[in-house]
Design goal:
29% of the residues lie in helices and 20% in strands. The chain is α/β, with parallel strands linked by helices. It has helices at residues 16-30, 48-56, 93-96, 114-125, 145-150, 204-208, 216-235; strands at residues 2-5, 35-38, 62-68, 74-82, 87-91, 130-134, 154-157, 174-179, 187-191. The chain has seven helices and nine strands, in the order E-H-E-H-E-E-E-H-H-E-H-E-E-E-H-H.
Length: 242
């Protein structure tokens, strides 16, 4: 008998590989002659890089980088290099992941995606011409502003002051977008398993904000800011609100 074990991670408890090995041990105990193969899987969140490498039959090739987590604390994250280093695979959950922070109403005003931008920037500076970004499992609702500022975008808050990265959630007081980053031809490929608009009842704040600690009042505020952010992007030729 041949058995393939493909189990997603148990969030905050077991990785996909660890959960798979536990299942495999149970199968072998029940059927000692079984041929069991554990295949890591992921949905764009934690463990996506490992699942991609396992699926491609590629040994682990990682760059270790000191960036920041969703609330600006130093954290070590890594990314995979494929195709001789021309392709990097970056995992948002490794640097701005929900499992790295305490969830509560004080989190939404603080959490941002700058750490992911720093990770992408490191891969680009190292020579990657294609960066695959797995977006699942993040702790922040900032419309990607932190990521873009870390990559060179120029954004101002509602007082007209420049937004720095890392820093508090830049969406919370978003005012205006002066310029988007120039990655000089680097291709960004996004891995996601959801199809949601930027704002509105089915948008990011309403659907994902509560799992990141947002109160109903915070959800409403974030949704209004996402609408303003979407309008600013559309004015720059990037209509992404849908």
């Amino acid at each position: 008998m041949r058995v393939v074990v493909a189990v997603d991670a148990f969030k905050g408890c077991l990785s996909s590989a660890d959960a798979g090995e536990a299942v495999a041990a149970g199968v072998r105990a029940a059927a000692p002659d079984a041929q069991v193969r554990v295949v890591p899987v992921a949905d764009g969140g934690e463990g996506t890089v490992d699942a991609l490498l396992a699926g491609a039959g590629v040994s682990r090739v990682r760059e270790a980088v000191r960036v920041v987590d969703a609330v600006g604390r130093p954290v070590d994250a890594g990314y995979a290099l494929l195709d001789g280093g021309s392709t990097a695979v970056v995992e948002a959950a490794s640097c701005v992941g929900l499992g790295q922070v305490d969830v509560g109403p004080d989190l939404p005003p603080r959490a941002g995606s700058a750490g992911l931008g720093l990770l992408v920037r490191h891969a680009v500076d190292r020579g990657a011409r294609r960066v695959v970004v797995a977006l699942g499992g993040t702790a922040c609702t900032d419309g990607g502003i932190g990521l873009l500022v870390a990559l060179g975008a120029r954004v101002r808050d509602d007082a007209g002051d420049p937004v720095a990265a890392p820093g508090p959630n830049p969406l919370w007081r978003f005012g205006s977008l002066d310029a988007l980053p120039d990655l000089r031809g680097v291709e960004l490929v996004v891995l996601t398993d959801v199809d949601s608009p930027l704002h509105g009842p089915a948008g990011a704040a309403h659907v994902f904000g509560p799992q990141k600690g947002a109160t109903p009042e915070q959800v409403a505020h974030l949704d209004r800011r996402l609408a303003a952010w979407g309008a600013a992007l559309a004015a720059r030729g990037r209509p992404v609100a849908d």
